[in-house]
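Researcher: Predict the fold of Ligase-associated DNA damage response exonuclease.
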Amino acid sequence: MKPEDLLCPSPAGLYSPIGDFYVDPVRPVARALVTHGHSDHARAGHGAVLATRQTLDIMRLRYGPGFCGSEQPIEIGKEIELNGVRVGFHPAGHVLGSAQIALEYDGMRIVVSGDYKRRPDPTCSPFEPLRCDVFITEATFGLPVFNHPDPNAEIARLLTSLEQFPDRTHLVGAYALGKAQRLIALLRAEGYRRPIFIHGALTQLCDYYSSEGVELGDLRPATAESTDPATFRGEVVIGPPSSFNERWARRFADPLAIFASGWMMVRQRAKQRGVELPLVISDHADWRELTATLQEIAPSQVWVTHGREEALVRWCKLAGVAARPLHMVGYEDEGD
Ligand SMILES: [Zn+2]
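Model: Structure tokens for Ligase-associated DNA damage response exonuclease follow.
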């Protein structure tokens, strides 16, 4: 049996011919298995969706109750059978509810890791290395130049700036699902006790994380119209990246533009966005994490879905591991 009989790339996403289901499909399909709630992996309009309870909750919050025909929650670590294929979900360490999906049939085991990272994250369960024949990985930061610093050191830079510029509004851009909550939790872990002001687009997901036991502390709405702009001086205000282009962002007193993303490694990207304080905090594996994970799992084959595929494929070949790029389209790294 070839691995492709169990799972193969198709225009709608990774498809299992034996199981008759898709993983993270980018088009509406009859049966979807979804790794996590970022909008490039979790789309609305499928028939049946199998995912962790938290991913289903997140999809419902983002798309509304009718986001799919039927929801099927699966517990992390538990296995079920779909048309003879054994299916199990395991932690990916990416965002709350995120999972790798393990598929097994006739002794062949394929793991679709979705998006993942290996750094500790107070907002989700850590990545679990799984034995498999084929490991399917992303390569968003799949170049040796991507060497993410310790996130706590990045948080320390933010805290230093708050001390140095007590009159400026520290306006932080962070993705609405995962990054914003991780940033808040990291600040709290460093002892930051002041209220943190959040854009309206973050409220639902922050409330959800809190209800799932992630400590986010005192969060308040950052509604600049109804509040004296002086209120936000010296405070942390967090909004999704898109909010930086809205009128909302221009209402704050003397804003200091900050952005938290793995892309902040690239000076040019920070400059283009007008970011004064780039924070390199990523929910994806960097080059070292990617290669260390492949060494640890030691699969017989590596498939690379999207990102800087060629460099990682080349690394695998030099390491004597069969590898192929899948050139999957439609995965835009919502939560980098
Ligand atoms: Zn993601």
